[in-house]
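Write out the bound-state structure for flavin-adenine dinucleotide.
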Amino acid sequence: MNTLKIIKIRVCTTDAKDIKTITFTHPGSVQPGQFYMIWIPGVDEIPMSISTINEETKGITFRKVGEATTALATLKPGDLIGVRGPYGRGFTLSGKHVLFVGGGTGIAMLAPAVEQAKKQGIDATVVIGVKNKTELFFDKRIKDTGANVFISTDDGSFGQKGLATDIAMDLLKKNTYSSVLTCGPEPMMKKLLDLCKNIPFQASLERYMKCSIGICGQCCIGRGLRVCKEGPVFDGKTLQNIEDFGNYRRDASGKKIQF
Ligand SMILES: Cc1cc2nc3c(=O)[nH]c(=O)nc-3n(C[C@H](O)[C@H](O)[C@H](O)COP(=O)(O)OP(=O)(O)OC[C@H]3O[C@@H](n4cnc5c(N)ncnc54)[C@H](O)[C@@H]3O)c2cc1C
Ligand code: FES
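---
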């Protein structure tokens, strides 16, 4: 899995404003929450969570934010990309009823986790939070699993006006969940962790990555926890003791950037 495979893109779709999915043939088992390193020839190699998991094919879903993702967005079926992985630890799915909370592009990697949970017979409630309705994607895909879906937009252009954490807070008051699983902006996930003191909690983190195989130390948080190896999914007990969580990340040079 440390070998770079050069693979032809099969399908490219536009899912929402600046959000695209690329699927390719990559047989093998993958845990929801794991990620690939994607090489865009002549541009860069970047970490991407796996958003579509089938036996033979896999997919990544990304937002156009900078040089690499903009180049990725111009690729077409038949173009070549490099794929390394899968890497990292994904979500542990268990219990009777799981609450999933996804913010922004975070919903991309939660989608296969919801699908897997439903296949295992676990009830799923999903909160999707986006800035406005043009940024909403995978809501139909998630509803089709039979999950109970709640949507919030910051500007009220779709679903409930406000933040995903507002809906989550309400649901947590009214219902009992076996665990809460989340991916999205870190301040959102930190707020959620503070609401889930007595509920098992898992969050998927993003940090700047170079090697992605636990060697370079670039992605460390807390006392030497490597996001690429011990994460990207961490449990609530671990995150409660990590000062970085929800506060800052580091750029490629190691400089602290506040969230
Ligand atoms: C485990 C993991 C999973 C991810 N999954 C997704 C996903 O499913 N969809 C998605 O849209 N994005 C995902 N990202 C973020 C994605 O890797 C960055 O947005 C991407 O690298 C940006 O590259 P760029 O050249 O387009 O933008 P840049 O202008 O280079 O950077 C934009 C932002 O991305 C960050 N970034 C740049 N390079 C890296 C890198 N090598 N490692 C981590 N962060 C970087 C920068 O610090 C900056 O905040 C994931 C990141 C990690 C660590
Ligand atoms: S990216 Fe090198 S240790 Fe994680």
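---
The chain has six helices and 18 strands.
The mean pLDDT is 97.
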